Amino acid sequence: MSSHASTPAAGSAHTLPSYLQADNLGPWGIYLQQVDRVTPYLGHLARWVETLKRPKRALIVDVPIELDNGTIAHFEGYRVQHNTSRGPGKGGVRFHQDVTLSEVMALSAWMSIKNAAVNVPYGGAKGGIRVDPKTLSMGELERLTRRYTSEIGIIIGPTKDIPAPDVNTNGQIMAWMMDTYSMNVGATATGVVTGKPVDLGGSLGRVEATGRGVFTVGVEAAKLTGLAIEGARVAVQGFGNVGGTAGKLFAEAGAKVVAVQDHTGTIYNGKGLDVPALLTHVKANGGVGGFAGADSMNPGEFWGVDCEILIPAALEGQITKDNAGKIKAKLVIEGANGPTTPEADDILHDKGVLVLPDVIANAGGVTVSYFEWVQDFSSFFWSEDEINARLVRIMQEAFAGVWQVAQEHKVSLRTATFIVACQRILHAREMRGLYP
User: Fold this and answer.
1) Strands, DSSP E only, in 53-176?
2) Homologous superfamily in CATH for domain 207-361
3) Cβ(57)–Cβ(88) under 8 Å?
4) Which helix (H) or strand (E) holds 140?
5) Best CA proximity match to 169, nearest among 133, 222, 139
6) Which of 119, 214, 420, 430 has its CA 20 to 30 A from that of 358?
7) At 338, is the pLDDT very low, low, confident or very high (cuts 50, 70, 90)?
8) Cβ(79)–Cβ(98) under 8 Å?
9) pLDDT at 405 exceeding the cut of 70
10) What's the mean pLDDT in 273-288?
11) Could you give phi then psi for residue 132, rounded to 5 degrees?
12) Which residue numbers are catalytic?
């Protein structure tokens, strides 16, 4: 009997693995719901929509290393390429104890949407290792990074899939990844990763790029909705590269950052926090907890803070049906990936809160990663002013396009961003056709 004959009817729910089912709660399930919401707006391209619901390639690797005490430890690593119809895969690598395949799949899919939304010629990819990097020495971290890079080396490359920093990874990790890949291919390949140190082919402006993008689309949305940035109260969750940069730029524009939350604490000052002093404190102490110029606050109270602008810039799944009703902000700018669940999205929409979705709001990082990749290929590097100007222009144009689609179809900015991005991805898929 042929294997085809024994296959259950196509389309029946139990033919799909659990991670492909929309009722499987988790990041991938949320992404599938988002695709379902956008399908009615795709016209004739809807016949290709299953393309978006299935990752092109998912690699799970064992990452064994020798610890400093001589024992062997094994960690589970992932690299998922969601879609490469528009170009090589592109997306970060995170080191976190809660990394799962569902999460990495969803993050890779959101990268496909994000890259298409700002119209850079990339597909979506993502990687991760399930590890708490704070428990490792620098030597162990290097061995982990190099072994992981060797394991995923069969699917990454400057024209195939280009990793970048994400949660708990940085320029040093990227330098090790670039060196390991280069040693394995026998030539220096600076374009295999982005987010590298500037001395190794990294780009100026990359560290602040995501936060600058958050600020840029926030300003554009404020103009269109009549919200004055000067004097606006801002609450930020997560105060690293993204939240810290966005908070600094809003403060410089005359807004008041009144509340900040991260893994070390929740702080509040109704008159406005001293953002430069807070950034110095975070750098010295690893978080906002214990900052002298603010009062400590119960973590749950953060979501109900009186503010005009809320920036979730930590991890996914932070704004849920349980806390969305407390939010008083007029504008939510998603600095993190997937911080708002679909149920929370609906609650915020019903309250008249404008949500600037991650797939456009935090695309500044990948936009400057694209600039870095282009500079590496040409071995010709741009000034920071040029990079920031190009970034702002691309973000403004992308946001204007999404805003127009939202007005035309009377849909949320998230759905509008998905409409723009999915049409671009599926149009590329349709034009390329199926081979063989």
Assistant:
1) 57-66, 72-83, 89-96, 124-130, 161-165
2) NAD(P)-binding Rossmann-like Domain (3.40.50.720)
3) no
4) helix 138-152
5) 133
6) 430
7) confident
8) no
9) yes
10) 95
11) -95, 100
12) 126
Other residues' Cβ atoms within 10 Å of the Cβ of residue 345: 24
One-letter amino acid for residue 69 of the chain: N
Q: To the nearest whole number, what is the mean pLDDT of the chain?
A: 93
Q: Provide the pLDDT for residue 9.
A: 42
Domain boundaries, the chain: 1-53, 55-190, 207-361
Amino acid at 362: N
- For 8-18, write each residue's pLDDT tens digit: 444 444 455 55
Which residue in this structure is represented by tokens 């973590």?
299
CATH of the structural domain 55-190, one choice from 3.40.50.1970, 3.40.50.740, 3.40.50.1100, 3.40.50.10860: 3.40.50.10860
DSSP 9: P
Q: Report how far residue 114's alpha carbon sits from residue 417's, in angstroms, rounded to the nearest whole number.
A: 8
Whether the per-residue pLDDT at 19 is higher than 60: the answer is no
- pLDDT given at position 276: 96
C-alpha 305/C-alpha 329 separation (Å) is 8
Residue predicted with more confidence, 396 or 23: 396
- The confidence band for 167, taking pLDDT boundaries of 50, 70 and 90, is confident
Which has the minimum average pLDDT: 7-11, 32-36, 203-207? 7-11
Residue type, 119: N
Tokens of 69: 């005490």
Q: How many CB atoms lie within 10 A of CB 379?
A: 8
User: Which 3 state secondary structure label does DSSP give 244?
Assistant: helix
Tokens found for residue 136: 């490792």
Rounded CA-CA distance 160/141 in Å is 25
- Find all residues with CB under 8 Å of 238, minimum gap 6, and list them: 261, 262, 312, 313, 314, 315, 335, 336
Could you tell me the sign of the dihedral formed by the alpha carbons of 142, 147, 150, 156, in that order?
negative
